[in-house]
């Protein structure tokens, strides 16, 4: 049969798929790793287990969730790029004004922030040119750095009420992590070379989603935009997200995936709008109910999309 590791990895596959293809998968694994070193065997085992998890969760190119994430991935890559662009702009200004020494961070936490911004910028550039393996690795490193940065600063929230901590995390960390997970969870075989549609989606992510993250990292630099973001753009984008959620399931069942893709890609923007709308009420029940209600609605839509079969290829173009 196969090695202990391969047998355990095959247990992750759905029972029916395992019974039909288990021996074949085990044979391919043994042939591929015959005489190979531990690193190669570990990588092949991770690929074997990873595909089993994708089959169980529907994150393959043949299932609706995987297809939606694959189509939304360029938008996520573009959104994650904007903090890196803001960082480059800040560095250019420091050099121009003769303050190059200011670029050397004295606090390790700011090193993490710079790694996060530049890592995700590299990921977006790689995605733009169709280098998706590099894009995924760069975004993974950048997002891990941002998560570590957030944890390093968590002590600043110790004097906050629980509602205040929820607002801070939702506005500073949740959008970044959601877009990162969206890109990393998308099926690798849907990451095709560049096209006009994918380039447009990436630029849309940079224009619509990116400023949300840029405001988190460079708020003082973006003060005029901040007024527009919180006072004008947030309610409009939140209303658009609600509209896309309403249209997502019926449109997907008719082979039109654009509303569902927009709802998935715009979830972090919708979350920011939801938190901003509820921030003034979070100390009481109305604000909590608003946030919980919004998350429940999104969860219901995702669950129904999960059960929607993939439409025919010729009808699924966006």
Automatic annotation (TrEMBL):
Keywords: Membrane, Transmembrane, Transmembrane helix. The chain crosses the membrane at residues 68-89, 109-130, 137-156, 162-187, 199-222, 228-249, 261-282, 288-306. This is Integral membrane protein.
């Amino acid at each position: 049969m196969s090695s202990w590791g391969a047998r355990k990895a095959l247990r992750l596959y759905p029972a029916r798929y395992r019974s039909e293809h288990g021996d074949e998968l085990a044979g391919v694994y043994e042939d591929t790793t015959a005489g190979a070193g531990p690193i190669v065997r570990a990588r092949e085992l991770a690929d074997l287990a990873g595909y089993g998890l994708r089959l169980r969760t529907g994150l393959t190119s043949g299932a609706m969730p995987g297809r939606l994430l694959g189509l939304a991935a360029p938008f996520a890559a573009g959104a994650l790029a904007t903090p890196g662009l803001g960082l480059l702009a800040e560095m250019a200004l420091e050099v121009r004004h003769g303050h190059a020494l200011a670029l050397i961070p004295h606090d390790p936490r700011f090193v993490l922030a710079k790694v996060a911004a530049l890592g995700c910028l590299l990921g977006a550039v790689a995605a733009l040119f169709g280098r998706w393996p590099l894009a995924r690795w760069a975004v993974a490193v950048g997002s891990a750095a941002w998560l570590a940065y957030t944890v390093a600063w968590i002590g600043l929230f110790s004097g906050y009420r629980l509602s205040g901590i929820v607002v801070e995390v939702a506005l500073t960390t949740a959008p970044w992590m959601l877009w990162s997970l969206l890109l990393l969870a998308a099926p690798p075989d849907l990451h095709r070379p560049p096209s006009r549609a994918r380039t447009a989606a990436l630029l849309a992510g940079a224009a619509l989603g990116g400023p949300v993250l840029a405001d988190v990292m460079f708020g003082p630099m973006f003060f005029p935009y901040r007024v527009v973001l919180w006072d004008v753009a947030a309610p409009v984008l939140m209303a658009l997200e609600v509209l896309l959620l309403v249209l997502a399931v019926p449109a997907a069942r008719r082979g039109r995936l654009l509303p569902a893709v927009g709802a998935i890609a715009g979830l972090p923007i919708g979350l920011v709008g939801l938190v901003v709308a509820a921030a003034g009420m979070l100390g009481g029940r109305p604000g909590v109910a608003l946030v919980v209600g919004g998350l429940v609605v999104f969860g219901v839509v995702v669950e129904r999309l999960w059960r929607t079969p993939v439409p025919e290829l010729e009808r699924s173009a966006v």
